[in-house]
Amino acid sequence: MTHPEATHHVDGLVGGQFDSPLTARGEREAGLIAAALRDVVPPDHRVAVASSDLRRTRTTAAVVGAALGVEPTLDPRLREKSYGEAGGRPQSWLDARFVPPPAVGDRLRHHEGVAGAETRLDVAVRAYAAMTDLLGQDVDELVVVTHGFTAGLLVAAWIGMPVEAAGHVAFPVPSGSITTLREDGYFHNRAVVTVGDVAHLRGPRTRRGED
């Protein structure tokens, strides 16, 4: 899952590893995410919650963990892509300096023109390593609280896409969304069941069944 609304979203600032907190709306949405997960996770299942250690994800994970009765673990490898010296600056500052990746060629190692920024390969290497370690846990349900760019690479790692093939991978995972991944217990096939679901952010339905 991706964290909900943070202050850099509404302030027009570059996020990345800029350590912005959730907004008041984001905190409310964290509660809706937690409630949605509590509804689908069987109470007798063994659960683990892992999170990026940035404030916006850490806060979200704490709410989710409380709903599921587990203490989240923090892993800096689940952080968002770093935009280096652009982090926390106005988005317009980054836009004026950003060098977009090529349509073809070595997109993984492409540098976007900002000092200290990570390449896609940098993020992929740490995201893949984190996913490998997380899947080694002896649990029934694993909740990972991360960020939009990183989430796509975690899904790529889940389905076994080689790192060198991840130069174009992207998934529509808006803020506060839940992506459901499932491995069956017999064949151990891995499925991407839903991507970027935000239905839970609309809140509970009315008695008439309206959205």
Keywords:
211 residues, two-stranded antiparallel ribbon, 6 helices, disordered C terminus, 5 strands
Q: How is this structure best described in words?
A:
Helices cover 32% and strands 12% of the residues. It is of the alpha/beta class. The chain has a three-stranded parallel β-sheet, covered by helices on one side. A two-stranded antiparallel ribbon has the order 4-5. Strand 1, helix 3 and strand 2 (73-74) form a beta-alpha-beta unit. Helix 2 (24-40) packs parallel to helix 3 (55-68) and helix 5 crosses helix 6. The chain starts with 6 loop residues before the first helix and ends in a 14-residue tail after the last strand. The relative contact order is 0.18. Residues 205-211 have low confidence and may be disordered.
Short summary:
The chain is built from six helices and five strands, in the order ααβαβααβαββ. It has 211 residues and is an alpha/beta fold.
- Strand percentage lies at 5-15%
Order of helices and strands: HHEHEHHEHEE
What summary fits the major beta sheet?
A: 3 strands, parallel
Structural class: alpha/beta
Shape: globular
Regions with little confidence, pLDDT below 50 for 5+ residues: 205-211
How many strands in all? Answer: 5
Radius of gyration: 17 Å
Provide the residue-averaged pLDDT.
95
Portion of residues in helices?
25-40%
Task: Count helical runs.
Answer: 6
Distance between the termini: 22 Å
Neighbour order of strands in the largest sheet: 2-1-3
